[in-house]
Write a structure and sequence with these properties.
The protein has 334 residues and is an alpha/beta fold. It has two domains: 4-124, 3-Layer(aba) Sandwich (Rossmann fold); 126-287 and 315-328, Dihydrodipicolinate Reductase, domain 2. It has helices at 16-28, 41-51, 60-63, 79-88, 103-116, 130-140, 170-173, 177-193, 264-273, 276-281, 284-301, 313-324; strands at 9-12, 35-37, 55-57, 69-72, 92-95, 120-122, 147-155, 198-204, 213-220, 226-232, 240-245, 248-253, 258-261, 327-328. The strands form two sheets. An eight-stranded mixed sheet has the order 13-12-11-7-10-9-8-14. β5, α5 (103-116) and β6 (120-122) form a beta-alpha-beta unit. The radius of gyration is 20 Å and the shape is globular. The mean pLDDT is 96. Bound molecules: nicotinamide-adenine-dinucleotide. The site of nicotinamide-adenine-dinucleotide (NAD) has 26 residues, from α1. Nicotinamide-adenine-dinucleotide (NAD) binds next to α1.
Length: 334
């Protein structure tokens, strides 16, 4: 059996995400990456020392044969080509979101993953969020009846400390807030609703650059479920998800791990799965820890990852169709 202690792991892309989450998670799990990869060698020199990495490199191609597995946390346009190279070489990958910008590309990665017999896990760490898992079971067991509508508002004035300017360049980011925040929001929506057939309307505020504000209306076919999603990186949104069924509703504010429900029955159902304290104390670093642990577990045991690439196909298709059918967002003052 492969053991995480002798697994040679590379971290590819050492920007904000790697510094804030992946390296601290590796410390928590007492795992040392074998190599850090980033074109900016000067800035990762110190990171290598503090993370225990033996080596740094400015080229994934140069080190790809010397590793067993990699976390890819590079600008979005690199996710597909870098992952494909690694999977073809038989290396396991934990791939940051969005795993690719198009459904066909995700399918291509899945095919390579299968033929190489390695693990490709998309980094949808929000599915490890207890409050989100509780909603999933609430829906599966129809605790508030048949789902009718989902309203999701997410975002705020952008303050994530990116190390590169990639997210502002459409050629590197492959999209704006829909591609970025939307990868998570729409993944949760598709995971909860479990219906791969939908039609949608989409509008955003792009005038050639990346969109900073967008709205999406989704009609899930052969069900009564309609979803409204609003995302922004220029306005402080309510950061609230409201799911309404035929017998009640739940309103989540995942940041803060709080929820309100239409009646005590729903609250009791959730608190039977997780205590108030358990829900409250789960932090972002816990989500990333759980994600890395799950990926390592799958590699060590040769088992399927808890979150597989197949399961993100609907949300990637939703993003792709959004951009295909894009309309200009109209403001009240236009
Ligand atoms: N899961 C989440 O919640 C979450 C949060 C933030 C970012 N992300 C994702 O993580 C990725 C990185 O985001 P970030 O905020 O760290 O961005 P960032 O701009 O801070 O970091 C990107 C890093 O990649 C490096 N890079 C560029 N080209 C490279 C190459 N060819 N090989 C290796 N490294 C290269 C850059 O030098 C930079 O250090 C993005 O895809 C983003 O969508 C996910």
């Amino acid at each position: 059996m492969i053991n995480k202690d002798n697994l040679k792991i590379a971290i590819v892309g050492c920007g904000a995400l790697t510094r804030i989450f992946y390296l601290p998670v590796f410390k928590r799990l007492s795992v040392n990456p074998v190599v850090l990869v980033d074109p900016d060698l000067t800035s990762i020199n110190d990171l290598a020392k503090s993370s225990g990495a033996k080596k740094i490199s400015n080229s994934l191609e140069d080190i790809a044969d010397d590793i067993d597995a990699a976390i890819i946390a590079t600008p979005n346009f690199l996710h597909f080509p870098q992952t494909k190279i690694l999977l073809e070489k038989g290396k396991h990958v934990l791939l940051e979101k969005p795993i690719a910008s198009k459904e066909a590309l995700v399918k291509e990665l899945i095919n390579v993953e299968k033929s190489s017999g390695v693990i490709l896990q998309p980094a949808m760490m929000r599915r490890f969020w207890k409050i989100n898992k509780a909603v999933k079971t609430l829906l599966q067991e129809e605790i508030f009846g048949i789902l009718q509508s989902v309203s999701m508002q997410e975002g705020g004035v952008l303050n994530w400390p990116v190390q590169s300017t990639a997210i502002f360049n459409p050629a590197l980011s492959l999209g704006g807030v829909l591609m970025d925040t939307g990868s998570h929001t729409l993944d949760l929506l598709c995971w909860w609703v479990e219906n791969r057939d939908f039609e949608l309307e989409y509008e955003d505020d792009s005038h050639g650059g990346v969109e900073a504000d967008c709205r999406l209306s989704v009609n899930f076919m052969n069900t009564s479920v309609k979803a409204e999603v609003k995302l922004s990186r220029i306005r402080n949104m309510s950061n609230e998800f409201i799911l309404t069924g035929t017998k009640g509703w739940i309103k989540l504010k995942p940041w803060g791990n709080v929820f309100e429900a239409s009646d005590r029955r729903i609250e009791k159902y959730i608190y039977r799965q997780y205590t108030r304290e358990e829900l409250k104390k789960q932090s972002f670093i816990d989500l990333f820890t759980e994600q890395v642990k799950n990926w390592l577990f799958a590699i060590e045991h040769g088992s399927a990852p808890v979150i597989d690439a197949e399961s993100v196909l609907p949300s990637i298709r939703m993003i792709e169709q959004g951009y295909q059918h894009r309309r200009q967002l109209k403001y009240a003052w236009n």
